[in-house]
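Structure tokens please, single chain.
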Amino acid sequence: MTEKECIELADLLYPNVKNIDYYLKKYKPRDNVLGEVTRLGPSPTGYLHIGQLYQSLVHRSLADKTNGIFYLRLEDTDGKREIDNAGTIAYEMLKYYNLTPDEGYRGKDEELGDYGPYMQSNRTEIYHSFAHELVKRGKAFPCFCKAAKDKEEIEKRRDEELEQTSELKLHDPCRNLTLNEIKEKLKNNLPFALRLRSMGDSNCTHKFNDIIKGEKDLRENSRDDVLIKSNGVPVYAFAHVVDDTLMRTTIIVRGQEWYQSLPVHIEISKAFGFEPFRYAHTPNICILDENGNKRKISKRKDAFADVRFFMKRGYPINAILEYLMTLLNSDFELWRKNNPDKSYKEFPFEIKKIGVTNPIFDFLKLNDISKTIISKFSAEELYINLLAWATDWNKESVDIIEDNKKNLIDVLSINRGGERPRKDITVYSEILELYNYVLPNFKPKYQFDLGLVNKQKLIEFLIDYKDNYIEAVDNQTWFENLKNLASKYGFVDNKTYKQNPNDYSGNVADASKYVRLAITDRIESPELYSIMKIVGLNECKNRINNLIEVLKK
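Here you go.
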């Protein structure tokens, strides 16, 4: 088409729209921002994915380290798959994890900032203006071909193309329609999609430098990709170029699954005369399947793909963020070892240090990090966090937690702090079960194996201990009292017991083990002396008597 025909066609397809210069002047460069301007663009078609939280940590860290801006744009153009309130949930999740964007979508259709609308569904007029510009330049054309309904139909069409020509058709047949032919179709109200008139050659490559992947040979795009669907809604590629240009995004950080579509994004940018963006394609978090093969985390298969999984379990916020940081920068663990008490935010994060290999999500490592973080809380802080977690995720336990505040704080205080604090708590959700022995109506199950311990001698020892148990003034005195009484019934020191294990009822460790079992229904627990003080004299005697009755059966 001639230049005049292209202008006429643009006015036919997208009448009464503003010139793109209007928007380019309205959304001025962010001259007051010194650092990177980066964004997260979730689609409200489900929960916030762990991969998006991973990306958000990159965005937030990058903005913080460079005195930049992190904003949230809601890419809500897929009305068929949209889930009510999903956008608000995404914002609230970012806020919960202390990754709150500086501007953009704020949930419940609220926005903050001068570069909106930040919901793509409210930017149709802008997209049509930019679509008008491409048609006017002869860089895009209307396609009246019937759209494929689903993936199966698309695959069928590809198979037919390969069978007929031994190659996929890169250029759309509507590309060569004349202006009159287009007018006739429009006159008959035929729906159309807008396609890019690709000028690329797939046989040609050029050097492209991805911030994470490094310099690569990139093939030119040569397909007439859809830019605007027949319902007037843009596809990601088109909206990305328009929105990130107007919102003055300086760096596009996204998952490596978008790397394959990079050529078309670059061609769209050049079609407008814009400089291509700087891109950083991060690796995807994976897991090992049942066969030991690496695969991406799946929304359908993996419950923890939903970040609310970690909230429901009660992982501390920083446990998740610090674990994700270990996946992003390999030197974070060494930094943490050398700086055990600093905030992770002080770590010198660098986007260039992100590896190119897809990391494996490791719950064992996450749990170790979580235990370490929880071990550094004071008992009072841990109690507050437990109550806050229960208020949000386990409301039926709130009354129990509040009614037993003193006992819970007391048991959480045992061996807390110091150079080697205990690390027996992984998540808040396990605390009530872990320390249920300081709660009322405790009902032990007493499932154990006596091993070589003489049952009758053990019963005699427990009866004597119960009848004569008094609360000692300190842990050492308590243990000496137990040790002296245990010796009376043949429980000896470890050295003697190891020499002749069959000649004795057991050693003192066995004696204390069964007192511990009586009080806590566990073989291991924090310091028993302190637990018995929390439980109280009478209740301790009752529980020892209960174990005696079980042993007698």
